[in-house]
Design brief:
The chain is α+β, with helices and mostly antiparallel strands. The chain contains 17 helices and 19 strands.
Length: 456
């Protein structure tokens, strides 16, 4: 069996590649994991998808759906077989801001969705750090979040409907493309697919719920002499009744690195808290000062905040750590990004333990996260020779989160990296959960062709 030639005959040469450079782009994630594939296919229609799924089902060939390859846990890393890149399926099928939805193909990028909605008075609020490269289908797959997660939640809160191709004998097309803001028709299969990381079905259409476009957000940047005080302030802000949209933090060492690598950052030393809110900025600043924060930047609009470079610290967090890792290792480092959450009230207990662990291990790291909802992103790097130590520390960080009623994955997914931790988490919550998940996988994907080896 020659998978590449079979697919070329089926789809035409322009939709199939095994060029080594192309394969290298589709067999890695945004962190450090690498895989291998026999071919990459670029479907342009639902029928293209169905034909490939039918071929893979009949031949038992592994099939890996993929969006912008910006995931961080190896969710779409192939281990032989076929990568199905959805980036050519990027049309807007229907836009109805008045009804509160937009219906798109999976390959459109999140940033393009909001470009399409410009002038409508509505927007799509999920904004991961990779918003310029992340596709809608990929965000559905991982259940993505982002900077506005404190106010708007995750992808699961904003998907009204889906069109799916199932990995069965007929490559069945399942249309769950609801366009109403309310739907309670049987089991919620839409929410089951959101966050399933391409293991159950291939997304070929998405109905996204829209939100009214926000007025200008005020932005405040404050520095603290300790993470303890910063977290205490966050808890006070959460219970203040203020209309908060953004609550982010970056540790002091990374703030300094952002500045040293030539990116803009407010002056001063300390752990940084970023607050974005509608109205009552003075009340927020009073709470910050009472908590020991030094306000180093204040903007009355997002445009002003961008001009001042306030968000450069948070957006530059990951790129700056990559720059540092490449420089210090002399080439090809391993980047490990954690994604745990605990209830915000448990942060004063959990966060110091995580910092102490990183310091005791002598790991090079940066610390940031969506502190408003308890989501922490300890980001570590090392040479490939030290990769196992990163894994070990990552496992211990996840165990700390579980001790404080937390979760091992908040918005990045399970993929390959977090499978063992997921099993530990599910067993703590009830031994049947893992059995149920495995049963769902067998029901949707009886031949285990779709993104095998991931999640469960």
């Amino acid at each position: 069996m020659d998978i590449y030639q079979d697919l070329r005959r089926m789809l035409g040469g322009s939709k199939v590649s095994r060029d080594p450079f192309i394969l290298s782009l589709h067999t890695r994630d945004a962190a450090y994991l690498r895989g291998e594939a026999d071919a990459v296919v670029y479907p342009e229609t639902v029928e293209d998808v169905r034909r490939v799924v039918n071929y893979c089902y009949e031949t038992g060939t592994p099939l890996y759906p993929q969006g912008g390859s910006s995931e961080l846990t190896g969710s779409s890393i192939p281990q032989g077989g076929v990568v199905m890149s959805m980036i050519r399926m990027r049309r807007v099928l229907e836009s109805s801001p008045g009804d509160g939805y937009i219906y798109v193909e999976p390959g459109i990028r999140l940033v393009e969705v909001n470009m399409e909605l410009a002038g409508s008075g509505m927007f799509f609020p999920i904004d991961p750090a990779s918003i310029k490269t992340a596709t809608v289908g990929g965000a559905v797959s991982t259940g993505a979040g982002g900077l506005r997660g404190f106010k708007y939640g995750l992808m699961r809160d904003w998907v009204l409907g889906l069109d799916l191709v199932l990995p069965d004998e007929e490559a069945s097309l399942l249309r769950l493309s609801y366009k109403t803001l309310k739907s309670r028709e049987g089991y919620d299969l839409v929410r089951l697919i959101v966050g399933s990381e391409g293991t159950l079905a291939i997304v070929v259409g998405v109905v996204l719920r829209l939100a009214p476009l926000q007025g200008d957000l005020a932005t405040i940047a404050a520095l603290y002499d300790s993470l303890d005080r910063l977290v205490e302030t966050v808890i006070r802000l959460r219970s203040s009744g203020l209309d908060l949209s953004i609550l982010e933090f970056v540790d002091r060492n990374t703030v300094a690195k952002v500045r040293s690598y030539g990116r803009r950052a407010p002056e001063g030393d300390g752990d940084m808290l970023l607050v974005g809110l509608s109205g009552e900025a003075e009340k927020a600043m009073e709470i910050i000062r009472m908590g020991g924060g030094e306000i180093v930047a204040h903007a009355d609009s997002m445009a002003e905040a961008e001009e001042m470079g306030i968000y450069e610290v948070r957006r530059g967090f990951y790129p700056v750590l990559i720059d540092e890792a490449v420089e210090k290792t002399g080439g090809d480092p391993v980047i490990y990004i954690e994604d745990v959450s605990v209830p915000p009230s448990r942060l004063p207990e959990a966060l110091p333990r995580i910092v102490r662990l990183l310091e005791e291990e002598g790991i090079s790291y940066g610390l940031a996260g969506h502190v408003g909802d308890g989501n922490i992103h300890p980001t570590m790097w090392a040479s490939h020779e030290d990769m196992e130590r990163l894994y070990r520390v990552g496992e211990r960080i996840m165990d700390i989160a579980l001790e404080y009623d937390g979760v091992v994955s908040s918005e990045h997914g399970i993929g390959i990296v977090k499978k063992r931790a997921l099993m530990r988490s599910l067993r703590r919550r009830g031994p049947k959960a893992l059995d149920i998940m495995r049963g769902i996988k067998r029901l949707f994907d009886p031949r285990n062709i779709l993104n095998p080896g991931k999640v469960v």
